[in-house]
């Protein structure tokens, strides 16, 4: 029995419905957040690779910003799929310019299926929860970071539905994770392993030179081993942390992080004078100190003067053709 073309057409499934358009306000918000992610990643990459000669602990950075659909609520996943190409695979949503990942040819929208021959998301829960699943995403990032720190990484990607295999040799860098915190507060922190920079302080910076100091200050805490030093010295982290001996020791680490952080900006090619400019504006915007008014940080005036002196010191060393070596070493 012959089957006509008309019969085939009648039996064929209907074409897929085009995706619903993303709400413009939601699209703008998600795209702005993605741009902030890339900005933080780019500045951190430059700081961590630029300061590698002065770091006791090293890692290797890919320069890839990877996201996973599990980070988002179920109602947002169709939008992020359209905007960033997120599927059931962890997906590259940004690539730091001139990074190791960029040099390997990795592009935005590439889904990561295999890492060194193993499924990246193997034995992790699927993207099934209706709520955002931070545990799956954290596990994915830990796997990526561990693999890049160990050496060259071979990735099997999916690009426009087609397989692609690339090998990325990450760039030698100071060891620390750097992440964007969605809080609107003007704050940044370091715990010895991770640096967090809030949206509030990111939005307050006028340019990447100022952002470099904010991230550089927190990176300096991790590089100089301040968390371990304070823990070993049994410095209290409670409500009285700014009082007496506790406060003196913490303030000392803050002064060192300011000083070393200015050097980090210079090693990365940023303007070291941006640190004092940033803090002058911060002091004017919040003269009482806000989160930094508990006695754990130097006063605003002294802090600005110290930052200016550090930048002038760098200028003088450059003019004299001297190496940019800071005075402070790790607190060990």
Write down the secondary-structure element order: HHEEHEHEEHEEEEEEHHHHHH
CATH class categorisation of the largest domain: Mainly Beta
Mean pLDDT: 87
- Widest beta sheet: strand line-up: 5-4-6-7
* Total strands: 11
How far do the termini sit from each other?
87 Å
As a percent range, the share of strand residues is: 15-25%
CATH architecture of the largest domain: Roll
Please state the CA-atom Rg, rounded to the nearest Å.
Answer: 24 Å
Which secondary-structure class do the elements indicate? alpha+beta
Q: Could you state the CATH homologous superfamily of the largest domain?
A: PDZ domain
Largest sheet: 4 strands, antiparallel
Low-confidence stretches: 1-9, 290-294
Which outline best applies? globular
* Count of the domains: 2
At the fold tier of CATH, the topology name of the largest domain is Pdz3 Domain
- Helix count, DSSP H or I runs of 4 or more residues: 11
Helix content: 40-55%
Protein name: M48 family metallopeptidase
Pfam family, one: Peptidase_M48
Biased composition (Basic and acidic residues): 303-318
Keywords: Hydrolase, Metal-binding, Metalloprotease, Protease, Zinc
């Amino acid at each position: 029995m012959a089957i006509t073309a008309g019969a085939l057409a009648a039996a064929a499934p209907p074409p897929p419905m085009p995706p619903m358009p993303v709400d413009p306000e939601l699209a703008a918000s998600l795209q702005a957040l993605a741009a902030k992610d890339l900005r933080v990643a780019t500045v951190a990459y430059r700081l961590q690779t630029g300061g590698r000669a002065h770091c006791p602990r090293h890692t290797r950075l890919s320069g890839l910003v990877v996201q996973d659909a599990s980070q988002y609520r179920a109602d947002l996943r169709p939008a992020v799929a359209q905007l960033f190409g997120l599927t059931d695979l962890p997906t590259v949503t940004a690539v730091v310019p001139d990074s190791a990942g960029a040099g390997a040819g990795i592009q935005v929208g590439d889904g990561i299926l295999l890492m060194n021959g193993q499924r990246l998301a193997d034995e992790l829960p699927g993207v099934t929860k209706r709520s955002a699943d931070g545990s799956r995403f954290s596990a994915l990032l830990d796997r990526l970071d561990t693999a890049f720190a160990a050496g060259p990484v071979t990735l099997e990607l999916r690009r426009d539905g087609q397989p692609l295999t690339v090998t990325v040799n990450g760039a030698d860098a100071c060891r620390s994770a750097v992440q964007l915190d969605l809080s609107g507060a003007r704050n940044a922190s370091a715990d010895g392993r991770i640096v967090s920079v809030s949206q509030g302080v990111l939005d307050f910076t006028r340019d990447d030179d100022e952002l470099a100091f904010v991230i550089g200050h927190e990176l300096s805490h991790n590089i100089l081993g301040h968390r371990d030093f304070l823990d070993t010295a049994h410095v209290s982290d409670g409500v009285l942390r700014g009082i007496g001996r506790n406060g003196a020791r913490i303030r000392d680490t803050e002064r060192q992080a300011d000083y070393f952080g200015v050097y980090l900006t210079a090693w990365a090619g940023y303007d070291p004078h941006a640190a004092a400019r940033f803090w002058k504006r911060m002091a004017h915007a919040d003269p009482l100190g806000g989160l930094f008014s508990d006695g754990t940080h130097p006063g605003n005036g002294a802090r600005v003067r110290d930052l200016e002196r550090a930048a002038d010191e760098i200028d003088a060393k450059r003019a004299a053709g001297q190496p940019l070596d800071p005075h402070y070493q790790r607190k060990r």
